[in-house]
Amino acid sequence: MTNEPRRGFGAKAMEAFESEASFRGISLLRALDTATLPTKCRAAGLLFAQQIRRNGEDRSHTLADQLSLPLDASFYRAMLRDSKAETSEDRLENLQELIALATRRPGEDETNRVRLMTLHKAKGLEFPHVFLPAWEAGVFPLDCGDADEERRLALVALTRGMRRVSISYCGFRRGFGAPSLFIDDIPDVHCVRGRFHAADQRRRRMRSGRLATAFEPFAQAMSKAAKKQGGNETH
Fold this sequence. Notes:
single chain; mainly alpha; two-stranded parallel sheet; 2 strands; elongated
């Protein structure tokens, strides 16, 4: 993580502070304080070391926090998320599994836990209940994505559930949204609309009714004005 994302540590700089650590018998983190490094490289290295130390000194942090927070402070997790490399997703998932391990307690029952994973990671697995959030147009499938590939992923997701698959979507996410077109592909015989959908439909009907009631006096006034104008023209 010392040079990921890049902090100006070339081969010579890496060799310099590794040699410093070996010569003094100290950790690589402490070697950043005394190693002879280029100015820009040294500043970036000291900032990195400060972030790691600050995290370790906070006694309120759990073990999971101590693993997770440096990934964000050093922008390592952001680097993996922005990367287009094929291995980036696996590396992110490995980090998440490591952090999840740190939250477990010895002897803790893990049978009633919710497991969070990507659609790719779920291939070949089955669960009694599966929850699929954010099935919205523009999110899944992405506007700029491969619709056929994402349709295959949708099929993978739907077939992971042994008893029930619950799909949800937002009516408003950075603007008004619409359900994913993949939802329409599910045969009605296999689809049960939930109470949230029914409530949304009721809200829409009520809103339409209120708008109609609000505009009724205006419409009546316009109608009277039109009739009066027509009568004046006749005379």
